Amino acid sequence: MIDGVRREGNDKSDNTLAMMRAYSINLLNQAFKEYYFKHTAMVEAPDAIQEREFGYSRFDGTMIRHLSIRDRNELIALLIMNVPADVYCSAAYYTSPTRPMEEKGLKAADLIFDIDVKELKPRCSSMHDIHLCEECLEPVDDTSSMCGCGSRRVNHVTIPCDECISLGKREVKKLAGMLEDDFGVDEDNIKVYFSGNYGFHVYVKGRYTLLDSAARSEVVNYLLGRGVADAIRKRYGRKVREEIRGKGKSKRGKRSIERDKDKGKKDDDSNNATTAAIYGYDDLKHSDGNSNSNSNDGSIVYIPRSILAADGGYGWIGRIGRYLAASAHVSMKSIEDAILALSVRIDPNVTIDMHRIFRLPGTLNSKSSLAKVPLPRLSDIDSFNPLIDACLISDREVDVYVINAPRFTLKGNSFGPYTHEEVKLPLYAASYLICKGIAYAKRKY
Question: Which cofactor does it need (predicted)?
Fold first, then answer.
């Protein structure tokens, strides 16, 4: 252990820690600058770049926003000259991107979904995540909000593993499937990015940029399965058998995201406009003629084989039917469980807020030093490994002091575990731990 690195409440320890923090910022600045020199091709200039708002943060925590950039060359120059900790670009297209928010003149915005693996509550997180006191630099039990030293400044450090990444991929696949099957989005209009830290961003291009916040809210409600169980209760009643009139699948079951916005339709038989897409058929005839009878959570709902069939039915009814295809009868409890399993765990506020800024693709994330990188194709998601494909810092060795780190893997190499010790690490691994706040550069580079 380095003398004085642990916080002992004396001037020597404070001075040593402050010096190592300065060394760490200097090292990250070098690593990020080297990346932007070598990997300019990775940086993506957005469509209609002059209509976007840009911003970036420095390693000292300051944030610069409301910037306008003319072209890709100016963007690359900004990265190399300023070496930002994080770089952001608006999802929105503005008439005047440098003006205050209320004066920018919103024209449209990319439709973007955020999947945060941490919100999925991975079961493996207790094996590799760390809760570290920012005062005494000692680990804190994950069930406690206070360190033994009395401080409440506890930092939750996420160290994703392959299992965590797989959880995020599962949500991406569910989201892409619902966008394609239920909303008619072409796969070519879906672009998936690893966020650079602990999740994925899914962009939907094309005409969907014209959706307003209200329409985006309806899309979010649909994907989250909000109101589906209640709509099924109202529609089917206690013991109702469906009879489908006509042949084939209804055109109404596979509609674009803009169906209600463009047509101005209102479905009086549902809780909201989103519910209209739940059923997936034009005509539903109930054998008892009562579509509004109530049912309890444990009541039986009869769903016909035509919907249970794997190739039958669009929307939530078809999706639930296929999920429960092995059951002749299903209870409301099993339907609710199916909705929970089939819904997509996205951050609703991210999608609804048209003014939100997102990390620029191809730039580094200061929480990990990994890059926000795209999947070449949606079909590549299973083979994509962000702990390799997004780890692009160089491998020259540096000396670091690691406070506390579990075993972790980057670029196919395993490191750790470490507890209050000096180690030599390749720069990509050292930068990763420093960005996580659990290591410091030992000297100036």
Answer: Mg(2+); Mn(2+)
Q: Are 145 and 378 in contact (CB under 8 A)?
A: no
**258 lies in which domain range?**
226-342
Cβ-contact 70, 46 below 8 angstroms: no
Q: How far is CA 188 from CA 179, 185, 192, 377, in A?
A: 12, 8, 11, 9
Whether 427 is in a domain gets the answer yes
- Mean pLDDT for each 10-residue chunk of the chain (445 residues)? 44 75 96 97 97 97 96 97 97 97 96 96 89 83 80 88 96 96 92 96 92 97 94 63 36 41 40 40 33 42 48 74 76 88 97 97 98 94 96 97 95 95 97 96 89
Are the C-beta atoms of 364 and 370 separated by less than 8 Å? Answer: yes
- Tell me, yes or no, whether 327 and 356 share the same domain: no
Whether residue 360 sits in one domain with residue 320: no
Residues 213, 352: contact at Cβ < 8 Å?
A: yes
Whether 368 contacts 428, CB under 8 Å: no
The two three-digit tokens of residue 272, written as one number = 């909201």
Helix axis angle, 427-436 relative to 11-38, nearest 10°? 130
**Residues tagged active-site:** 114, 116, 347
Indicate the residue among 326, 342, 358 that finishes a domain: 342
